[in-house]
Amino acid sequence: MNTVADFDFIVVGAGSAGCLLANRLSADPDRRVLLIEAGGKDDWFWIKVPVGYLYTIANPRTDWCFTTEPDPGLAGRSIHYARGRVIGGCSSINAMIHMRGQASDYELWAQATGDERWLWGGPDSPGDTLAIYRKLENYFGGADDWHGAGGEIRVELPRVRWKILDAWQAAAAQVGISPIAEFNQGDNAGCAYFHVNQRRGRRWSMADAFLHPIAHRPNLTVYTQTQALRLLMDDQVHKDQRRGAWTTAQHRVAGVRLLKGGQIVDVRARQEVILSAGAIGSPHLMQVSGLGPAGLLNQHQVPVAVDLPGVGENLQDHLQIRTIYRIRGAPTVNTLYRNWISRAGMGLQYLLFRSGPMTMPPSTLGAFAKSDPALASSDLEWHVQPLSLPKFGEPLHPFAAITPSVCNLRPTSRGHVRMASADPLTYPKISCNYLSTDADRQIAVRGLRMTRQIMAAPALARYGPQELLPGLQLVSDDELQKAAGELGTTIFHPVGTCAMGAFDAHGRPRASTTVLDTDCRVFRVAGLRVVDASAIPTIISGNTNAPVMLIAERAARAIVG
């Protein structure tokens, strides 16, 4: 082992947050920044073509290919748990949906952290969430009260529409879910086509937005195909006086041990190490480094550096329940893909015009509604796909069909991520515990019943929708609860495993799940932050990539001042 180099900042993980942090921290030429990525470069053809998610997910070239522990809530099934393992991270393989969440989500963040800056913002609000989103955005319609222009994150309209999805939107309106222009104005109730992170029909990842434009900076070093093994700690403990809660540091993180090119090497950080390895990778690296629940660490003979009970706990995710309806009289991806002439036409349309089905994200149309009218904001979301298949990775069905998937946006079920071994190269155990609460099971049933109401609306009658899954023979609540467990799968939104939280007057976390303060610093550990979806205290009611960028921008401002 040898020390390769010293840097001011080391960022572990070149995913969405890591790319932004590398950009912001290296803006000062006097700061030396190292960005570490376990995967390779993002120069593969199928990363850039939007429909390429069919080839990047579940592919070890670009995906960690985690699997969950058998889940009682999913009829004992273990499911694939995709996480990006490539420059750009999940933003190089995700659905490209640009979704901020709802204003009510950020009220919960403000309550959890004691920091009103997380509030949505406006004339009478101290929050700056909307202002940061506007600053980061390059919106296709230009700047207005809701959107920004000139930022790094490109936001566009989808470049393909489907007759069957237009009819689904009309059917949703007939049952009370009205058409709206977009989902990013704080209250998402309604039905609309998703805005997407694309630029002229190509995926616009966070690497495209933040990393590639500044990769030439001489003070920025990027390691690819490099696995972080452990955090290095020394006995130097100092008081960080910027926030009163941070006066009890027990250790200081001084660097990272890496596996690079078959060699184990150490890199040192003069100022900070920042973990941006995601809701699975960041807590796992902390645990194998001795930062985590003492009982878990003792179980695997890992010396306890700091007992942090919340590391790896509080896992939250959106469970999507896939329903499938066979239709007639309208094209879907199934019917187009079945014919080689239409497949060739799709390819030609993309090459010539950067439009058509090859620009399609996994879901094009969405809808938000309340499972209970008494709720303050929507807690159900539909992702509607003009295609169907038995399960991801298998061939499309040989008939026209659509897949309206419904998910509970605010699940009360909680899971965890826990090391399976002291060996950092052994994958952790991921237990999601889906549908483990009565509330989640009841909302799953309501979501399925509301889906049936939409599919039975007059606007869809001409297409003769025929329910294949879960099947009209299932009627009772018990039958539908069982079906939800058999059909449900992740929508790839894991968050919360190193959650931000508030601290009392004595500098102690108010909740056992709290690991970070509102600036993403790790409790009782100097020189270490976690800046990624791990930090989210309560899951956002929507897709998670944009909120991660919000957190990264706020953290970057806290670091550089």
Automatic annotation (TrEMBL):
One example GO MF annotation: oxidoreductase activity, acting on CH-OH group of donors
Positions that bind FAD: V86
Keyword hit for Nucleus: no
Keyword entries, A-Z: FAD, Flavoprotein
Cofactor(s) needed: FAD
Cross-referenced Gene3D superfamilies: FAD/NAD(P)-binding domain, Glucose Oxidase, domain 3
InterPro entries xrefs: FAD/NAD-bd_sf, GMC_OxRdtase, GMC_OxRdtase_N, GMC_OxRtase_C
SUPFAM superfamilies xrefs: FAD-linked reductases, C-terminal domain (SSF54373), FAD/NAD(P)-binding domain (SSF51905)
Domain Glucose-methanol-choline oxidoreductase N-terminal span(s) in chain numbering: 278-292
Pfam families: GMC_oxred_C (PF05199), GMC_oxred_N (PF00732)
Keyword Oxidoreductase (UniProt): no
Similarity comment: Belongs to the GMC oxidoreductase family.
Protein's name according to its UniProt entry: Choline dehydrogenase or related flavoprotein
